[in-house]
Amino acid sequence: MRRAGQLLAVLCVVALVMTLCGCGGSGSPTGRSIDTAAAGGIPGAPDKPPPEEPEPPAEGEAIVFAGSRAVMMIKPDGTGEFTVAKSGTYPSWSPDGSQIVFVGYVGNGNKRRTELFIINADASGLRQLTDSPEFVENDPDWSPVADQIVFYGYPAGTSVDLGARDIWVINADGSGLQNLTNSPGISDSLPTWSPDGTQIACNRYDQDADDSNIWIMNADGGEPVRLTNDQLGVSFFPAWSPDGTKIAFESSRDGNFEIYVLNVADAAAGDWGQELNLTNDPATDRQPAWSPDGSKIVLSSKRGGAYWGYVMNADGTDVQLIYDGDFYRPDWRAAP
Q1: Which of 23, 165, 199, 302 is deepest in the core (most CB within 10 A)?
Q2: C-alpha separations of 176 from 118, 160, 168, 173, 242 in Å
Q3: ∠ at Cα 30 (207, 143), nearest 5°?
Q4: 3-state class of 39 per DSSP?
Q5: Could you give phi then psi for residue 265, rounded to 5 degrees?
Q6: Spelled out in words, what is the top-level CATH class assigned to the domain 2-333?
């Protein structure tokens, strides 16, 4: 019960700036794509005319992240700040860097709910991907090799029922919705594609075993393979290295969230416990993402007293502040 309580507390933080609302009941994403881009509208807010001259996005490599209730973009050195969507969280780049999928909001007050949206990198062409009033979608990740988006979801009103969380995949045009896990009693969440698109890493919480670890599975589902054996804390937010050989993740195993890295082949073979602590800092370090060349990692850290954006070398050295504002769930794009 202690670990279950700990996991629930952590999941409240994982929600970040999101307000997960629903009407109760059960359901699933419909996959119906709705164009809300007319007149530059933002989900959950009245339509507004677009500016006459929209501000251009950052050029070259760029990091997209969730700011204070907005989807933001900056260059890796912290310059070129740009607002992609004025309302949303959990952004992820398309393979060619031209679009971003994110969690947005529909409705107001107690009828406000989350849905998946897609928007162009220049903040144009907003469209709603899912339309499921009785279902909560969360943490989408765009496949690096296909027009597919993986996410986790659960029926509205069951947020405390961890066993209701499953991994889903949907095509970027709203078709082909599929539940990959469908595992009662198991919470599957925070999915991310391998660089070749053949596997998906995720967090899996086993209610019976009362543990929370990183697992991988084939992209079409199948039996997951365990990568960590975290007995003292919880492991979240896996992130593949660009060459697919490593996964960075966060863990609270030492009583404080740190960024760790593991070798995928060794961990999949059961050689657990070889993870390397990259941060080893008294402050909370979370939500890693790799640079396109694998030489650096961007993360969200409370080293400045709040969750700000930092970049470090892939071995954990030379940690540099790049954004001194709300900074959650970053995703680093190569130059388009």
Answers
A1: 165
A2: 16, 28, 10, 9, 27
A3: 70
A4: helix
A5: -60, -45
A6: mainly beta
